[in-house]
Amino acid sequence: MKFLRLGPRGSESPALLATDGSYRDLTGVVRDVDGGIFAADAMARLRSVDPMRLPLIDHKTRIGPCVGNVGKLIGVGLNYADHAAEGNMPLPKEPILFMKATSSIIGPDDDVVLPRGATQPDWEVELGIIIGREARYIDEADALNHVGGYCVVNDVSERAFQHERGGQWTKGKSADTFGPIGPWVVTADEIPDPQKLRLWLEVDGHRYQNGTTSQMIFGVRKLVSYISQFMSLRPGDIISTGTPAGVGAGQKPSPVWLRAGQVMRLSVEGLGEQSQRVRAFEP
């Protein structure tokens, strides 16, 4: 099943993407598309519904962030060998984790606004894991049982804030609008192998990133299990699993940074497509 949230910013309503591509209103079935939809009773209600009997929603309606009430947005750094290589960084022995502020979350087609003082804004297409069942100290063998679904994430980054301002990466990852997610949540049963998904990103029609999740250093099972050793993962939490080579910082002979007026397009196989226009900060 594919779920999305539609409507004005802050007032999104739950919806379902039907097999014919139409948007169907789930307001009378579930309160929101959040961690609660993965509960057994909610899933039973959703699976019992005939999508074609649900009210139709206009395709022109804004698509909001695909998950509401996100408790944690956890990033994984340098999780593709080719991305580590383009940055001249050693392969990590364990997953590199950072937190990305949930206030960065926006819809998949909302504008990305460059923060004040940004000089090195960059892009990163990533597979997002959406937790469906609480995970605490779980084994890898059990990890996928705690995954509710997947989504596309653009881990927009400001490299100068990230690498030149001291401290952790969080400050370069957390600006408002730096976390587009969606367009929809795809339930885990529709993605039998999350390590066999192509992902790509373009800026103004030029394809910079073109990889596959098979290239991950630490796969979905490992990441869910590993992170659960350090913090509880709760329904609706999102793990952004890292990006393949082709980020702006890795371009040769010199880096390429995002500029106001440019458009990013990106996709993960089976999970839909995003498109964001870049805007300058306006006080």
Strand content: 25-35%
What is the CA-based Rg, rounded? 18 Å
Structural category: alpha+beta
Helix content: 10-25%
The CATH topology of the largest domain corresponds to Fumarylacetoacetate hydrolase, domain 2
Instruction: Determine the N-to-C terminus distance.
Output: 41 Å
Number of strands: 19
Biggest β-sheet: strands ordered side by side in the sheet: 4-3-2-1-14-11-10-17-5-6
Largest sheet: 10 strands, mixed
Q: Indicate the CATH class of the largest domain.
A: Alpha Beta
Treating each run of at least 4 consecutive H or I residues as one helix, how many helices? 5
Q: How would you portray this structure in words?
A:
The strands form four sheets. Strands 4-3-2-1-14-11-10-17-5-6 form a ten-stranded mixed β-sheet, covered by helices on one side. It has a five-stranded mixed β-sheet with strand order 8-19-18-15-16, with no helix packed on it. The chain folds into two domains: 2-57, no CATH class; 73-279, Fumarylacetoacetase-like, C-terminal domain (Fumarylacetoacetate hydrolase, domain 2, Alpha-Beta Complex), CATH 3.90.850. The protein has 283 residues and is α+β, with helices and mostly antiparallel strands. The chain is 12% helix and 29% strand.
